[in-house]
Amino acid sequence: MVFRPTFKRFSYLNPTLIRIFTQQSYGLQTATKPEVVMPKCNYEPEPYSGISFEDAVKIRKSNVNPAMFTYYKQPVFIHKGYMQWLWDTTGKRYLDLFAGIVTVSVGHCHPVVVEAAEKQMKNLWHTTNIYMHPTLHQYASELVAKLPSNLKVVYFTNSGSEANDLAMLMSRMYTGTFEVVGTRNAYHGASPYLMGLTSLSTWRYNVPTGFGIYQTMNPDPYRGPWGGSHCRDSPVQTTRKCDCPADRCLATDFYLEQLEDVLRHSMPKGRVGAFFAESIQGVGGTVQFPKGFLKGAFKKIRERGGLCISDEVQTGFGRTGTDFWGFEGHDIIPDIVTMAKGMGNGFPLAAVVTTPEIAQKMSEALHFNTYGGNPISCAVGSAVLKVIEEEKIQENSHVTGTYMLEELAKIQDEVEIVGDVRGKGLMIGVEMVTDKESRTPLPAQHIAEIWERSKDMGILIGKGGLYGNVFRIKPPMCITKEDVDFAVDIFRKSLSGYEKGVKS
């Protein structure tokens, strides 16, 4: 089905795009489609006064990491954020559906978090952790209270990559086995130590890396060899046919056989050091594993003396809605949990949490992180937990995320190039294809056109997947149903404009 809306001129819409859409109209009356209006915001930022966009572009070209890519043909020059909203230097407002790459959890500049940071800055900005200070100890106790079982010891770091680095070291120290297993299509960081564990060629340099690291086949019910319409823990299932009964995913058995094959052939004397997995793959395109896979994988790893590591960098802190941690939705308890991003709502804060037994092994040598557990970062972390609890952020992620998935699924039914809608809570992916039958990834230039249209009409979304053909929707978890209606309508119009352009 091809959408054929017409447009009226709104103050927040790009006039050129509106004119193009209108000129390409198929003659329908404006009244056939309700007008989409950007939800109101009770915050008005002060006018921007600072470095010009032109000067920023020059500096970026001359003085900033040249490998750092920039979104959009005309980059968005952001200077202010408030809750789910961002403003550029011209005063244009955007609904942020990517949250600083799944990092802003409770909202940009959330007043409670800002107040906590300001209060701590006035008391103690920084001291190394060879001295004791209150905020680290208070936050550590609050954080471990959110974790099940014997996950009681916290190592504070500054980023998800640091956390995963440390988790890999811990597993090798504790088990005495060097070999580590991950999944293809996973992203765990881009540091030299982790590059071998990140199994996306777009993030890997041509240097020796990955010694002792192996990947099993990615258990993807949409793009993998097995899986279908009964396999995911999601309100929306893939349209691939599936022979699985309602209470069991047969695809899981096949993917576990692939893991068993890696363990049988590649591990030393039947042992393994660790198994790494994201609860839902983030950078890889919001890929959800078939039900029961992680539980079965953990069992196989533990039978061989290995540790199970859950990467909750993107899925933690209520983002999946039904649970505080993504691994809880898989009915598993890891030996080590890594976390970052939403933990600090954008402030540099990350951690590894493990058991006392595993932590004790790390005391064989000194371990220290200068900024890990910084007083301000811990005060921010405590404030984030407080907001999640008091403002029912996890519940909103579940309710609003489910609603958004169901609305996006309607577009999937209507539009041939929307191949898959998936996710849980506010961890959502929309995979674009040339057609549903072949599932061929939609080419980059076509993805870019839809992406640019969406930006011009007021929503910012991410991209991911090996082919860059998955729209990643992971907004601040404070968004509302009204925001979702606006975002879905803009996305629908962006697809409509794209399809009309193809046909014209």
Automatic annotation (TrEMBL):
<keyword id="KW-0808">Transferase</keyword>
<dbReference type="InterPro" id="IPR005814">
    <property type="entry name" value="Aminotrans_3"/>
</dbReference>
<protein>
    <recommendedName>
        <fullName>Alanine--glyoxylate aminotransferase 2, mitochondrial</fullName>
        <ecNumber>2.6.1.18</ecNumber>
        <ecNumber>2.6.1.40</ecNumber>
        <ecNumber>2.6.1.44</ecNumber>
    </recommendedName>
</protein>
<dbReference type="GO" id="GO:0030170">
    <property type="term" value="F:pyridoxal phosphate binding"/>
</dbReference>
<dbReference type="InterPro" id="IPR049704">
    <property type="entry name" value="Aminotrans_3_PPA_site"/>
</dbReference>
<dbReference type="GO" id="GO:0016223">
    <property type="term" value="F:beta-alanine:pyruvate transaminase activity"/>
</dbReference>
<dbReference type="InterPro" id="IPR015421">
    <property type="entry name" value="PyrdxlP-dep_Trfase_major"/>
</dbReference>
<dbReference type="GO" id="GO:0047305">
    <property type="term" value="F:(R)-3-amino-2-methylpropionate-pyruvate transaminase activity"/>
</dbReference>
<keyword id="KW-0663">Pyridoxal phosphate</keyword>
<dbReference type="InterPro" id="IPR015422">
    <property type="entry name" value="PyrdxlP-dep_Trfase_small"/>
</dbReference>
<dbReference type="InterPro" id="IPR015424">
    <property type="entry name" value="PyrdxlP-dep_Trfase"/>
</dbReference>
<dbReference type="GO" id="GO:0008453">
    <property type="term" value="F:alanine-glyoxylate transaminase activity"/>
</dbReference>
<keyword id="KW-0496">Mitochondrion</keyword>
<keyword id="KW-0032">Aminotransferase</keyword>
<keyword id="KW-0809">Transit peptide</keyword>
<dbReference type="GO" id="GO:0005739">
    <property type="term" value="C:mitochondrion"/>
</dbReference>
<dbReference type="Pfam" id="PF00202">
    <property type="entry name" value="Aminotran_3"/>
</dbReference>
<comment type="similarity">
    <text>Belongs to the class-III pyridoxal-phosphate-dependent aminotransferase family.</text>
</comment>
<dbReference type="GO" id="GO:0009436">
    <property type="term" value="P:glyoxylate catabolic process"/>
</dbReference>
<dbReference type="GO" id="GO:0019481">
    <property type="term" value="P:L-alanine catabolic process, by transamination"/>
</dbReference>
<comment type="function">
    <text>Multifunctional aminotransferase with a broad substrate specificity. Catalyzes the conversion of glyoxylate to glycine using alanine as the amino donor. Catalyzes metabolism of not L- but the D-isomer of D-beta-aminoisobutyric acid to generate 2-methyl-3-oxopropanoate and alanine. Catalyzes the transfer of the amino group from beta-alanine to pyruvate to yield L-alanine and 3-oxopropanoate. Can metabolize NG-monomethyl-L-arginine (NMMA), asymmetric NG,NG-dimethyl-L-arginine (ADMA) and symmetric NG,N'G-dimethyl-L-arginine (SDMA).</text>
</comment>
<comment type="subunit">
    <text>Homotetramer.</text>
</comment>
